[in-house]
Structure formats: structure tokens, C-alpha cells
């Protein structure tokens, strides 16, 4: 009885309550309280009931949650975009397939969506926030600066070039494949001008930890910056479309196509736009410097951080500097990872990368290293813009992938690691809708309607990929 | 029942016939499409495109927002159909049903099953060729099949109003007939939406994900409604509007008749008041009596009216591939009945109530609601003869005279409108001006001879018309037809604006709705097209117009950008004729100039059967209106004769025979009919014509102007009706003993 009371008191310190039910109480602002649903399928999102935590017991474990060990959140794939940049290839979007993310109807609103997610997370008071890559969309300095300001707080200036919008979504663009808010349904007259206006962002009220993604370092997430691409980015020649005679298809190599387009090796239709030196693409070193971080061994952003006394985060930088969207884990990184896992001692470990390790070259070696570490709770990633939770039985631990802020469902993810009465732990996780204030609501509407976006592609995942209690057995040592 | 009551009942019945016909025609046409669309489960969007692999297509389609379900078809046109009675059609259209929701309703027989040799045919073909389920039908290439079922699908008008007849076959039938092993690629997608009011959003997404799909075009359910209106030649809008006007006429007449009846009974009301009856009780009794007369009369009238036009109305709906209302018609008819009875009752009760509230002595003094009758100036009574005397009798009660004139004016106005409508139908068939094109002839001629053409008698204007076929700049496969004139194109072609404004500059364009839908254009956006030489031309969209040409994939522009793109572009000469011009003379003049012209066709059907159906509908409604006019005249004369009983008796006592009496009554009748005829013409020109035209203005600018002959016809008809009314009333007056009238005097 004394032990139970003691456990209860311990839990109360973090969970403001006592008993197992208290740990299941949905915090305000999360999708456990309410979320947005399209109940009648008419394309309009409405407030719907919250989603319960689904028990995921594929890895065993169980027992009554008795104490919260740590809380943290994940923001991923915000893709804060300079949608006016000449160093983009939105006209390839119509090809679908690998090209489909290069234009989004809501692309002028990415900074506002990130700010809306920050506000939502602030209400949940996590101990830390991991930003798992693709914070910027095109590795541009102005994109990273805007995103960083949103996260740290301050006045955000989304506009680039001359004042006001100049890009493919202008009303007088005759190309019917672009969403032109003044022209096409759902009409939002004045949206583009509103999107360019500066706004104040509150910034995260808790420490945040960046993870590099391919879009943070590569042009369009595919091609390493070259002088030719830099010249396009900081120039005044905007490619609106390829010549109609050029017909790449969805099977065309995306990296090669992006490089060819940005190097002006294809016949194109162009227009003149105001240039802006702030659009230059950052080198990996510059990116690290702007993030206030130092690279490890070859400039990779591998590092660790603690979330309270019981949990350690290990960040892996798996961006292939040579180009391409697929991740790369080097042998040296695996060695470093093993060492960090050992150093974590009795702390529980979460591993964070942009590309999922399962989809990275060399990722299996890294996963094997995790398999050998008894207190790994989860390997958490973004990149695919899709919610997914799968058990790694050889660990055991969980492989968690989280949806993006740029595509529907535009959600962040919250984690709470709880100790259970059986001696194990459970990782509670649930999605967090951004607050939808101002232009962020329009962005979510457009993202939902997008026929190439997250709705038809099932990025929200199954209910058990979203809000779930991920049980883990007691660690073997 | 007294003669007066019988007369009142006849009037109510006549008016109710109008109500019955108007309700039947109006309700049927106003709701026919929606009823048929519901029954057929018509899709909210139908997309046509070049045949595509189904899996690739479906991946795009199922990604659309607001989508409830989808199905696909493959269309094969120009197939010969032959039945065993020797009917033959060269232009059959086969729809290969590739599963899923059908988008048509089986009205007889059954749908396609897996049994071999089955074909489902559209209802129009079944009716025209008298085919029934089980009958054999030969399809070119498919061999002998048998009709499994008859289908209704209101996404087009029915054969033969539509030039092609549609039949549906299953996939297996095609495989068997043509030994097709691979996939049958669809070229039609039927889409059902969760919320059809958000179809524009679904279409926008369909457009942005359609890259690589050729010749894509969309037709929404609302668009089908417009297409049907176009194909039916605007008749639907006009008849619905006409029904409303007819109801107005009936209401006016009923109110006036009831008012006059109470005036006739003022004496009785005075006596009742003198005997102590309260005004409320007197009014209630009037209401009861009026309702008892009105109910059977209105019921029978409405029933007769409905039955008279039920057949033609049903045929009309069938020709439009729409669905007759059936039992649902009961509601508007019962509503009409209730309205007529209520109108009669209120009209009869209100004057009775007003009269009964006054002192009995004031009522018994007589007159029109105690308004002192003005004395005619001395010496005038003798002038003008018997006709003038009758006219003075009629004019003595100004209120009643006005009501009678109004009633007949509205009725006659409607008849004039109907005649103008008939003329319009002919014009729609022959005259392109009614559907947006204002030129009647075209020819190819050297531009230097343009002044000679403009100088020809009967030519109002002539201008070169440039036409350039172009592709949209984004390889959507949308063939765009650019039409350019040197100046204001609306002098020659003025399809109605759906949104925006007319073009004012060389870099502006008015685009057809079809093109706007396909390319996401609206006023203010940019149209980019590629001429055959590869040069891109851009236009700012000034307006979107309801053009029929090239399925609306047309843009009206100035000629300069077209000539800049292709300096060798040769124009045709568009020639607009003056009103009443002798076309043959103009043709001869052009031929003499070495440029024999071509005639520009209209937009509606020349199908004789369809026009016959329309004529039957119009005849039914016209008959009812004629009865209203006759009743109004008879009633006006009967009341006049009743009021002037004493004077008429004096005339008869002084030796006047039936002719004398008839002349007096004819004067009274003409005093009503003459001004009514004049007012009818004014009413039609100033109010009814523009009103009805405005109902159809969504499609075209219509001018419902009657010809002088039509006006004369209506005036003659009114005179004939006045003569008939005079004869009827004169006979009645002559049957009454002279002494009865003298006693009153």
C-alpha cells in the first residue's frame, strides 16, 4: 500500500493527478480531445471527436502507467518555402509520381503553418521539441532564416524579391495546372498578398533540436547546390514551365531532371522576376552555423541531448550530400551511434533522423546497433510525410514516422514516456493539429483538397499509426 | 342552381382551366429534369477524354475531393442500328458500360446482365421505333442482339430530338463481337459527388491532375440542364414563364368577377342588414356560397385543364428525356384549387363585408357601394346611336369596366405573347440571331469588295470574320476556336454573357463556358493559346459567354492578334440583314458579285414531331385563355344588362327588337373589348414580352415581338368573342318579359 501511494505521488509530480486513468487523460489541444474530420466526405474539414490511444502491444509489455518519465514533441517536414524563388521546378509537379511535391496549392503559407504548430505545441508544454528535418524546402538562406525565426520567436518576413507576390500562382498565369487563389476554387482573393506580409511568431517555449533533412541541404531536396543553381536562385529568371514539346514523365529520374532544369539545360518558358541574394542556397556548414550547431566528423549534424533525467535523444544526420532524397548512414556514424548508446547508460533512448533508417542506405546497420541496445524506445523520423508506427521486434522498439506540416494532415506529434507497473515503459504518442489561426486554416483546407496531396495518399495513416500507447517490455538489462 | 350562379361557376371553371393547364405544363417542365435526373441517378459530373488506361485514370479520379463514387464507359459513335421493322439509323452511339453505377434508369425490362446478346436502349429510340424488351435489334459489328431494357438518362435530349440514339452494351458483348482480349479503355468518367454544390472544387482538382489526358471536357449536372435548354430551343424557360403569366390573368379575372357579383347583390345585402343580420354573418354567408360555387367549378376546370395538356406535356417531357410528374402533379393542382377557391371566396366576401358594414338605408339606396352615380350631361344621351348608348352603359360603372378591361387585356396579351412565341420557335429554327449569332449569311469575298456588299439593298452590316483553330498552350488537348472581328463583334455575334463584360481591347477575349471550364478561366485570368505556327497568343479574359459553337470551346477576340499570328489568314464575310430584308434579293446580289453566300443555320431542332408537340401544348393553353376572355365579356355584358334592365325594357317597349338590344349590348361589349385589345398589345410589348424574354435571358436575348398580323388576329378574335357574348346575352334579355324591367324602372 505504501508503495502504491509513493508511486501515485511520484506520478502526480508530472501528471497533476494520480492513478492510471490520469495518465490517459487527453491533454488540451491534442487530437485526443478533438480533431478535424471530413465526416460526410464533401471535402470540408469539421471539428470531430478526439481519437483514443490505441494499445499497441505487439512488442509485449503492459501494466498500469505509474509515472511520466519525459514528454517531447516532434515537428517535421515544415518545408518553409520561398515560393517565389526562381530555383524551383513547380512545373514538374503535374507529372505526378516523384515530382508531385514540387508544387502545392498551399505553398505560400508554410511559415504560417509552422507558426500555428508552434502555438499548439506551446499549449502542451513538452520538455523538448525535435524538428526532424526539411525545415526549409530548397536549402535557401531566406527559407531557413524564416523557419528559424518562427521557432525562436520574432518577426517573420516570408516575402522575397520585391514586395508582394511574384510567382506561378498569380492570377494572370494562364497555366491551368497551378492553383491561382484569386481565380480557382476554392477562391481566396488576396491570399498571396496576405501570405507575403510579415507576422510575429511566438517561438517555441521549450528547447528545440534540429535534425537535417534533404531539403535543408539540397536544391529541391535532390540536387547539391552548384554555381549554376546558385545563379538561378539569386537571379531574376523564373522558369514557369517547360516547353510543351518537352515531355518528361513520372518515371524520369527526379534528381537528374531537377538538376537539368535548374541548370537551364532544357527548353523552358521563363519570365523575369525581381532577384534576391537572400535566396542563395546554403552549404551544409552555413546551415549548421545558422542553426547554431557544430557538425561532427565531416560536418554531419549528429549529436545527443537529454530530455529530463531519464531519456536521451540521439540525432543522426542521414542526408546524402551527393544528392538524392534517400538517406545515407555511414559506417562512422554507426560506430558513433554504438558509442552514444553505450554512453546513454540507464537512460531510455529515442533516435531521431529525417529519413527513416529503414529507408536509408546503411540504415540496417544502424538499426542493428539499436537492436543491441536494451533501452531504445523508438527510432523517430519524418521525410515520407506519412504517419506510421511499426514494431521492431528484433529490438524491441518502435519505428515511428510522422506526417509533415506541409501536406495534409499538417500535424505534429507528441510523445510521453511513462513507466509502467510491470517494470517496462509505454510510449504514448498522439498527433497535434496546428491551431488553424489565420492563414494556417486556409493552408489546411487547400492541403486537404489537393488531389496529389496527403488526403488521397493516406498520409494520416491508420488510427493506430496516430494516437497510440506503444507498450514495451522491461529492458533486458 | 340559378343562371347567375351557373354563369359564375362557368367563369370560375374557365379560369381554373388556365390554372390547370399552367400548373400541368409549368410544374412538369420546371421539375422534369430534376425528377428524371434523380430517377436516373444522373452523375454530378461527366468527363469526356481520349481513351486512357483505366488503372492510371482511376488513380487520378479516386484522388478527387468530394467524390462519392465513380464509373466508366467507352463511347463508340457512328454505329448503324437496324430493327426488324426496317428502321435504320446511321448515327447510333454505343456506350460500353464498364461496371459501377449506371447513371441511367431502367424504365422497362431489365439492365444488362451477364447473358449474351443484350442491349439496353434509350427511351427515345424505343418510343420512336416502338421497341419493347425482348425485341431484336441489330448493331453494326455486334450482330443481332435483343433489347433487354429501356433506359432513361437525361444527360441529353431524347432521340430523335437528339440526332443520335444511344444504346448500352456490356463489356463481354464487345469482347465477343470484336475478339477484344485486352483492356477496354474508358473515355467517359461518371462522377457522383458528396456535395454537388462543391462541384467547382472537384473540377478544379480534376483539372490540375489531368496532365497528359487528351481532349478533356467536363459537363456538370447543371451544365446538362443548360444543354437541354439549348437543345430544346429555350422553350422550357418560356413556357414556365408563360404559366406564371397565365396564372396572373386567371387571378385578375376571378377577383373582378367575384366583386361584380357582390355589387349585383347589394339590394339583398341591404335587406338582410335591415332585418338585423350582422355584417359578419352576411359576409360568412357570402363566403360559404362562393366556396360552394367555386369548389366544384374550380375542381372541374383544373381537371379539364390538366387533362387537356397532360398528353402533349408528357410527350414534350419525353422528347426532352425528362420525367412527367405523375402523382406529384396532384400537389400543385390541389394548391391551385385551394388558391382559386380562396381567391373567389375572399373576393366575394370582402366586398360583401364592406357593403354590410354600412347602414342598411345607405345600402338600400343602391349604387356601387353608395358612390353616387354621376348624371350624364344633358343632351349627350341622344347622340351616338345605340352603340354609343351601350358604351355609356358599360362606362357608367368605371370600376367594373376597368376590371373587365384589365382581365381581357391580360388574357389577350397572353394570347399575343403565345403567338409571338410560336413565331419565335420558327425563328429559332431558321434565324441564328436568336441564339447569339446576328448574321444570317456568310460568303468568301475579297475584302476590297466589302463596300459593295455593304451597299447591297437589305444588307445592314458586313464584316470579315476570322477564325483560327489553336491549341491551348499547355497541351491539354483542348482545341480552341478563336473568332476575330475588326471591331465590335457583338454586331455579328453576341452570345450572352455569363460573367464579366464584353471585350474592349485587342488583348482581351470573351471565352465560351466550355473553354472556361476546361482551362479554369474567369474574368481577369489569362488565356494562352498556340497558333498552328507555334506562336503563343495571350489574352486577358474580359468575359465568359454562353456560346454554343464548338461545345463552348471558343474565344471571341479582335482580328489583329489573329492576323499577327497568321498574316495569311483568310476571312469569311459575315453579313447581317436588315429587318424584313428580302433574303433572296441579297443572295442574288452577292451571287452577282461572284460570292454566292451560305446560309447560317439556327440552333434548335427542326424535328416536326417535336414542334408538333409544342404546338399541341400551346393550343391547349390558348383554348383555356380564349374561354377566359369569352367569360369575361359575357359577364361584363350580363351585369350591364342586369343593371340597365329598365332602360333596355323601355327600348323594347318603344318597339326595339332583338337587333336593337343587340346593338346596345354590342356597344357595351366593344367599350370593353376595344380598350382591352389596345391595352393587350401595349401590355405584351411593354411587360409580358420583356418579362418572358428575361426568363430565358440566361441563354439568349429574345425579343417576343408580335407581327401586325398576329395583333390583328387577336383583335379580330376579341371582336368575335364580343359578338358571341352579345348574342348570348341579347337572347337572354329578350326572353325576359318587358314588364319585369319596366317595373324596376
Describe the structure using short key phrases.
heterodimer, A: 477 residues, alpha/beta, 7-stranded mixed sheet, 6-stranded mixed sheet, 23% strand, globular, disordered N terminus, B: 745 residues, alpha+beta, 6-stranded mixed β-barrel, 22 helices, 20 strands, 52% helix
Tell me what the structure shows.
The complex is a heterodimer of chains A (477) and B (745). By secondary structure, chain A is α/β, with parallel strands linked by helices. Helix content of chain A is 24%, strand content 23%. In chain A, strands 3-21-20-19-4-5-8 form a seven-stranded mixed β-sheet. A six-stranded mixed β-sheet of chain A has the order 11-12-14-16-18-17, covered by helices on one side. In chain A, strand 4 (65-75), helix 3 (110-124) and strand 5 (128-132) form a beta-alpha-beta unit. In chain A, helix 3 (110-124) runs parallel beside helix 4 (141-152) and helix 10 (331-343) packs parallel to helix 11. Chain A is globular. In chain B, helix 9 (279-319) packs antiparallel against helix 10 (330-356). Chain B is built from 22 helices and 20 strands. In chain B, the strands form two sheets. In chain B, strands 2-3-8-5-7-6 form a six-stranded mixed beta barrel. A six-stranded mixed barrel of chain B has the order 12-13-18-15-17-16.
Brief characterization of the structure:
The complex is a heterodimer of chains A (477) and B (745). With 477 residues, chain A is of the alpha/beta class. Chain A has helices spanning 2-15, 20-24, 110-124, 141-152, 191-196, 214-217, 227-233, 254-262, 284-291, 331-343, 363-371, 439-449, and strands at 34-37, 46-49, 54-56, 65-75, 128-132, 154-156, 199-201, 208-211, 237-242, 268-272, 303-307, 311-316, 327-328, 348-353, 360-361, 376-381, 388-392, 397-401, 411-420, 425-433, 468-472.
Amino acid at each position: 500500500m505504501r508503495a502504491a501511494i509513493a508511486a501515485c505521488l511520484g506520478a502526480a509530480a508530472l501528471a497533476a493527478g494520480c492513478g492510471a486513468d490520469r495518465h490517459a487523460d487527453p491533454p488540451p489541444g491534442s487530437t485526443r480531445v478533438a480533431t478535424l474530420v471530413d465526416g460526410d466526405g464533401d471535402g470540408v474539414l469539421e471539428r470531430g471527436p478526439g481519437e483514443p490511444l490505441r494499445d499497441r502491444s505487439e512488442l509485449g509489455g503492459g501494466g498500469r502507467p505509474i509515472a511520466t518519465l519525459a514528454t517531447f514533441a516532434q515537428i517535421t517536414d515544415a518545408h518553409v518555402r520561398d515560393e517565389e524563388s526562381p530555383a524551383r521546378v513547380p512545373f514538374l509537379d503535374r507529372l505526378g509520381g516523384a515530382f508531385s511535391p514540387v508544387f502545392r496549392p498551399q505553398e505560400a503559407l508554410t511559415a504560417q503553418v509552422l507558426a500555428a504548430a508552434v502555438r499548439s505545441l506551446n499549449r502542451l508544454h513538452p520538455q523538448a521539441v525535435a524538428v526532424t528535418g526539411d525545415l526549409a524546402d530548397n536549402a535557401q538562406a531566406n527559407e531557413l532564416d524564416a523557419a528559424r525565426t518562427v521557432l525562436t520567436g520574432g518577426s517573420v518576413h516570408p516575402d522575397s524579391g520585391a514586395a508582394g507576390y511574384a510567382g506561378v500562382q498569380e492570377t494572370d498565369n494562364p497555366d491551368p495546372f497551378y492553383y491561382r487563389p484569386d481565380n480557382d476554387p476554392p477562391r481566396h482573393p488576396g491570399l498571396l498578398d496576405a501570405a507575403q506580409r510579415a507576422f510575429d511568431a511566438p517561438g517555441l517555449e521549450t528547447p528545440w533540436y534540429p535534425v537535417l533533412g534533404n531539403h535543408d541541404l539540397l536544391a529541391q531536396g535532390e540536387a547539391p547546390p552548384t554555381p549554376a543553381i546558385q545563379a538561378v536562385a539569386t537571379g531574376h529568371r523564373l522558369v514557369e514551365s517547360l516547353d510543351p514539346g518537352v515531355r518528361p514523365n513520372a518515371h524520369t529520374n527526379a534528381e537528374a531532371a531537377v538538376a537539368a532544369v535548374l541548370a537551364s539545360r532544357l527548353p523552358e518558358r521563363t519570365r523575369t522576376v525581381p532577384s534576391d541574394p537572400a535566396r542563395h542556397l546554403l552549404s551544409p556548414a552555413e546551415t549548421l552555423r545558422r542553426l547554431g550547431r557544430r557538425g561532427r566528423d565531416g560536418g554531419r549534424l549528429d549529436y545527443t541531448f537529454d530530455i529530463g533525467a531519464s531519456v536521451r535523444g540521439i540525432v543522426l544526420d542521414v542526408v546524402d550530400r551527393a544528392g538524392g532524397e534517400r538517406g545515407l548512414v555511414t559506417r562512422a556514424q554507426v560506430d558513433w551511434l554504438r558509442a552514444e548508446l553505450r554512453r546513454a547508460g540507464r537512460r531510455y533512448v529515442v533516435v531521431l533522423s529525417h529519413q527513416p533508417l529503414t529507408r536509408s542506405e546503411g540504415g540496417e546497420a544502424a538499426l542493428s546497433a539499436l537492436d543491441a541496445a536494451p533501452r531504445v524506445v523508438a527510432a523517430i523520423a519524418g521525410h515520407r510525410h506519412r504517419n506510421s508506427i511499426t514494431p521492431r521486434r528484433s529490438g524491441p522498439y518502435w519505428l515511428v514516422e510522422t506526417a509533415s506540416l506541409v501536406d495534409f494532415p499538417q500535424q505534429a506529434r507528441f510523445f510521453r514516456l511513462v513507466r509502467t507497473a510491470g517494470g517496462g515503459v509505454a510510449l504514448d504518442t498522439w498527433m497535434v493539429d496546428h491551431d488553424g489561426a489565420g492563414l494556417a486554416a486556409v493552408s489546411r483546407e487547400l492541403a486537404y483538397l489537393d488531389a496529389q496531396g496527403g488526403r488521397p495518399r493516406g498520409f494520416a495513416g491508420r488510427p493506430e499509426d496516430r494516437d497510440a500507447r506503444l507498450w514495451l517490455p522491461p529492458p533486458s538489462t | 342552381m340559378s343562371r347567375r350562379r351557373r354563369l359564375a361557376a362557368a367563369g370560375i371553371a374557365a379560369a381554373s382551366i388556365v390554372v390547370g393547364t399552367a400548373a400541368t405544363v409549368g410544374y412538369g417542365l420546371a421539375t422534369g429534369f430534376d425528377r428524371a435526373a434523380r430517377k436516373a441517378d444522373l452523375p454530378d459530373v461527366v468527363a469526356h477524354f481520349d481513351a486512357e488506361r483505366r488503372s492510371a485514370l482511376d488513380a487520378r479520379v479516386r484522388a478527387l475531393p468530394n467524390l462519392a463514387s465513380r464509373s466508366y464507359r467507352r463511347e463508340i459513335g457512328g454505329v448503324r442500328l437496324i430493327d426488324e421493322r426496317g428502321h435504320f439509323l446511321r448515327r447510333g452511339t454505343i456506350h460500353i458500360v464498364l461496371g459501377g453505377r449506371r447513371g441511367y434508369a431502367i424504365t422497362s425490362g431489365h439492365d444488362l446482365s451477364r447473358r449474351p446478346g443484350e442491349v439496353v436502349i434509350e427511351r427515345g429510340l424505343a418510343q420512336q421505333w416502338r421497341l419493347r424488351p425482348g425485341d431484336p435489334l441489330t448493331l453494326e459489328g455486334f450482330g443481332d442482339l435483343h433489347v433487354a431494357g429501356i433506359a432513361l438518362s437525361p444527360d441529353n435530349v431524347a432521340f430523335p430530338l437528339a440526332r443520335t440514339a444511344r444504346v448500352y452494351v456490356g463489356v463481354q458483348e464487345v469482347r465477343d463481337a470484336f475478339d477484344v482480349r485486352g483492356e477496354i479503355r474508358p473515355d467517359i468518367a461518371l462522377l457522383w459527388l458528396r456535395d454537388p454544390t462543391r462541384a467547382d472544387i472537384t473540377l478544379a482538382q480534376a483539372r490540375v491532375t489531368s496532365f497528359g489526358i487528351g481532349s478533356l471536357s467536363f459537363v456538370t449536372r447543371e451544365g446538362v440542364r443548360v444543354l437541354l435548354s439549348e437543345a430544346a430551343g429555350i422553350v422550357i424557360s418560356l413556357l414556365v414563364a408563360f404559366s406564371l403569366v397565365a396564372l396572373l390573368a386567371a387571378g385578375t379575372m376571378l377577383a373582378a368577377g367575384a366583386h361584380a357579383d357582390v355589387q349585383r347583390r347589394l339590394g339583398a345585402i341591404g335587406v338582410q342588414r335591415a332585418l338585423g343580420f350582422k355584417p359578419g354573418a352576411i359576409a360568412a354567408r357570402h363566403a360559404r356560397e362562393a366556396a360552394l360555387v367555386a369548389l366544384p367549378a374550380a375542381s372541374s376546370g383544373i381537371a379539364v385543364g390538366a387533362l387537356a395538356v397532360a398528353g402533349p406535356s408528357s410527350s414534350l417531357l419525353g422528347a426532352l428525356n425528362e420525367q412527367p410528374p405523375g402523382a406529384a402533379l396532384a400537389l400543385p393542382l390541389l394548391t391551385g384549387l385551394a388558391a382559386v377557391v380562396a381567391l373567389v371566396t375572399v373576393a366575394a366576401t370582402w366586398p360583401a363585408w364592406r357593403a354590410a358594414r354600412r347602414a342598411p338605408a345607405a345600402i338600400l339606396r343602391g349604387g356601387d357601394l353608395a358612390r353616387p352615380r354621376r348624371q350624364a350631361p344633358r343632351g349627350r344621351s341622344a347622340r351616338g346611336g345605340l352603340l354609343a348608348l351601350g358604351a355609356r352603359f358599360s362606362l357608367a360603372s368605371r370600376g367594373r369596366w376597368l376590371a373587365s378591361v384589365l382581365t381581357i387585356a391580360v388574357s389577350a396579351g397572353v394570347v399575343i405573347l403565345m403567338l409571338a412565341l410560336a413565331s419565335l420557335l420558327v425563328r429559332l429554327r431558321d434565324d441564328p440571331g436568336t441564339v447569339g449569332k446576328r448574321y444570317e449569311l456568310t460568303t468568301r469575298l475579297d475584302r476590297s469588295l466589302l463596300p459593295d456588299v455593304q451597299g447591297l439593298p437589305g444588307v445592314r452590316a458586313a464584316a470579315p470574320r476570322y477564325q483560327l483553330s489553336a491549341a491551348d498552350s499547355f497541351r491539354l488537348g483542348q482545341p480552341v476556336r478563336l473568332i476575330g472581328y475588326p471591331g465590335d463583334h457583338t454586331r455579328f455575334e453576341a452570345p450572352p454573357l455569363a460573367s464579366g463584360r464584353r471585350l474592349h481591347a485587342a488583348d482581351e477575349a470573351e471565352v465560351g463556358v466550355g473553354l472556361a471550364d476546361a482551362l479554369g478561366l474567369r474574368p481577369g485570368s489569362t488565356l494562352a493559346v498556340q497558333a498552328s505556327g507555334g506562336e503563343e497568343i495571350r489574352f486577358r479574359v474580359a468575359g465568359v459567354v454562353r456560346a454554343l459553337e464548338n461545345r463552348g470551346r471558343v474565344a471571341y477576340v479582335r482580328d489583329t492578334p489573329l492576323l499577327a499570328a497568321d498574316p495569311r489568314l483568310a476571312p469569311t464575310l459575315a453579313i447581317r440583314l436588315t429587318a424584313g430584308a428580302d433574303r433572296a434579293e441579297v443572295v442574288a446580289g452577292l451571287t452577282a458579285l461572284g460570292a454566292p453566300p451560305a446560309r447560317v443555320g439556327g440552333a434548335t431542332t427542326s424535328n416536326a414531331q417535336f414542334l408538333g408537340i409544342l404546338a399541341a401544348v400551346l393550343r391547349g393553353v390558348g383554348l383555356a385563355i380564349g374561354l377566359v376572355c369569352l367569360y369575361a365579356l359575357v359577364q361584363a355584358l350580363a351585369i350591364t344588362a342586369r343593371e340597365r334592365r329598365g332602360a333596355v325594357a323601355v327600348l323594347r317597349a318603344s318597339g326595339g327588337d332583338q337587333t336593337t338590344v343587340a346593338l346596345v349590348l354590342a356597344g357595351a361589349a366593344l367599350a370593353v373589348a376595344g380598350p382591352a385589345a389596345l391595352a393587350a398589345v401595349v401590355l405584351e410589348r411593354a411587360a409580358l414580352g420583356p418579362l418572358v424574354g428575361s426568363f430565358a435571358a440566361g441563354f439568349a436575348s429574345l425579343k417576343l415581338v408580335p407581327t401586325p398580323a398576329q395583333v390583328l388576329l387577336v383583335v379580330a378574335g376579341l371582336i368575335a368573342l364580343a359578338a358571341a357574348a352579345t348574342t348570348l346575352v341579347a337572347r337572354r334579355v329578350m326572353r325576359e318579359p318587358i314588364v319585369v324591367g319596366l317595373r324596376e324602372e
